[in-house]
Amino acid sequence: MYWKYLEIEFEYQKKDELLLIKIDAARLYGNYTYTPPLQCL
Questions:
Q1: How many domains does the chain have?
Q2: 33 neighbors 2 (Cβ within 8 angstroms)
Q3: Is the dihedral of CA 34, 26, 24, 4 positive or negative?
Q4: Which residues constitute the domain of residue 18?
Q5: Residue 4 CB: number of other CB atoms within 10 A?
Q6: Does the pLDDT of residue 18 top 50, yes or no?
Q7: What stretch of H or E contains 27?
Q8: Model confidence band, residue 7 (pLDDT cutoffs 50, 70, 90)
């Protein structure tokens, strides 16, 4: 399921650096349950 997070990360990279950092931090700590608000995409 990790590919799903990479896909989300790619979408955010084009739109919001801060959210990308949050996703990066969540991945770093192994918190794969982190789900960004999809309506912001």
A1: 1
A2: no
A3: negative
A4: 2-40
A5: 10
A6: yes
A7: helix 17-28
A8: low
Report the candidate in 14, 16, 13, 8 with the shortest Cα–Cα distance to residue 38: 8
CA distances from 41 to 15, 18, 25, 29 (A): 8, 14, 19, 23
Is the Cβ–Cβ distance between 23 and 12 less than 8 Å? yes
Q: Is the whole-model pTM more than 0.90?
A: no
Q: Give residue 31's identity as a one-letter amino acid code.
A: N
- Contact between residue 23 and residue 34 where contact means Cβ atoms under 8 Å apart: yes
The pLDDT, as a whole number, for residue 22 is 73
Q: How far apart are CA 9 and CA 19, in angstroms?
A: 9
